[in-house]
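Exercise 7. Predict the structure of Coenzyme A biosynthesis bifunctional protein CoaBC from Saccharothrix coeruleofusca.
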Amino acid sequence: MTETPDAPARPRVILGVGGGIAAYKACEVLRRLTESGHDVRVVPTAGALEFVGAATFEALSGQPVRTGVFTDVPEVPHVKLGQGADLVVVAPATANLLAKAAHGLADDLLTNTLLTARCPVLLVPAMHTEMWEHPATRDNVALLRSRGVVVAEPASGRLTGKDTGKGRLPDPAEIVELSRLLLERADALPRDLEGVRVAVSAGGTREPLDPVRYLGNRSSGRQGFALARVAAQRGARVTLVAAHTADLGTPAGVDLVRVGTAEQLREAMHAAAAEADVVVMAAAVADFRPVAPAEHKIKKSDRDPDPVALTRNPDILAELVAARRPGQVVVGFAAETGDAEAGVLEHGRAKLKRKGCDWLVVNAVGDGRAFEVEDNAGWLLSAGGSETPIPHGSKAHLASALWDAVVRTSNF
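Solution. The predicted structure, encoded as tokens:
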């Protein structure tokens, strides 16, 4: 494609599509990638076209679709596609396709592209549980990962027919988030958290005033979900305790626990932290709750409403720090605005000292920052005194920076 002199080149993504029933979900992955500014070329297998026609992929991408190496031979597509890509994503990656990629077989355009690509490669498996757990598939996945290929953890849920289990293709939004992360940082998803147990909180608590109304906040939960998602894709065993969030789905490879109030989140996080090596408090916990929520909806009247008596909620982060086991890492988050007394970073330093956690992520909030948006930035403060700025990027990018620091300074 041609770029204007002043326009930055769009990231070039090859979207490979394997021949599984989940191939239809590749259409949503394609739509999300193109609408977010990526230049996408779809390279399906012949089996994939049994599920989704080439015309669909061509209409959504604006690019021709080919499966074999003997079309457009003068352009040498079996070499040039991989050479020119910034990222190769294969979704779904079937057991057959994983086996071919692991052993260097190249009998169609997609497998040739995988051999010539020198950019990050993300393979997103989808298959029945028995196929995913078969020793041959596990060996192929391990071999690919040892070479630096990112093989995503599949989701659990409904499979073909009435079967359920691990092997489901992750949600298209999750695939796109992982793709964007690898375009931001090619080394963002190493398998360096294998076997590490992680507990993460996310979202905003809601404290009932009556059966209809509540005290809450603007947290969407996106940052906490990104922390859980990236940890799981780096090999961790993750429990995600989520209060109110946007409609984010369950990250692949993550055990999700839903809660509502601060007290419920407190109970769930203490239970998860008891077995965790790393505890991350990313949830936005309401500082106060009504002393006595009304049993019935509070009605409007001509008189002024009665004052609502509030009591302070427990400081869950401080409790988790106090209960910390030897070697356990506790991470907190601070959403700050700055005021007449101090700036965002100064308030963050004070909170780190007050809470006593090992790491604190400080975010500036307000004016469209941090809350209810897809991107984030901030500072990573350590109990040892280091301060690392985290540049503006996706929330998955911030998550990867945090996990880098935790791995670097821990003895897992």
